[in-house]
Design a protein that fits this description.
This protein has 138 residues and is an all-alpha fold.
């Protein structure tokens, strides 16, 4: 029996090599043995290209998010400026009313005229500039 236990414990100590390709692939990546193969040297340009594409994709994603945030902040700023414009315009309309102007100027001693304005007409005159050959009498 003692011999039987010894054989059984020796079997446990040995590692079984898995026949599943995915398991072998991942174990070779974790072991580092994948880097010692000749195929890796031939795939190196492709791996470098894939790495550069990955870095470009990450950069492009960050850049797009940054631009999106800028656009959103500019939209908010446009809304705020539009509201400020409308408010200022309405205040100007109120302040430029004739009654408001008269009320503000009353404190300075300027009073509103009660006499309606008259239209002045200038008497007709002959033109100062005339062409001599057109105005000659024959």
């Amino acid at each position: 029996m003692a011999e039987n236990k010894m054989i059984h414990s020796e079997k446990k100590g040995k590692k079984k090599k898995s026949n599943i390709p995915a398991t072998r692939f991942f174990s070779s990546i974790l072991d580092g043995t994948i880097l010692t193969r000749d195929k890796v040297e031939s795939m190196l340009p492709f791996l470098l290209f894939a790495t550069i594409l990955g870095i470009f994709l990450i950069f492009n994603t960050y850049y797009a998010e940054k631009k999106s945030r800028e656009i959103e902040s500019l939209r908010n700023e446009i809304i705020e400026l539009r509201l400020k414009y409308i408010t200022t315009k309405s205040e100007l309309m109120v302040l430029s009313n004739q009654s408001e102007v008269a009320r503000r100027l009353k404190s300075r001693g300027v009073v509103e005229s009660v006499v309606p304005p008259r239209q002045l007409k200038e008497p007709e005159r002959s033109s100062r500039f005339s062409l001599g050959f057109l105005s000659r009498k024959k």
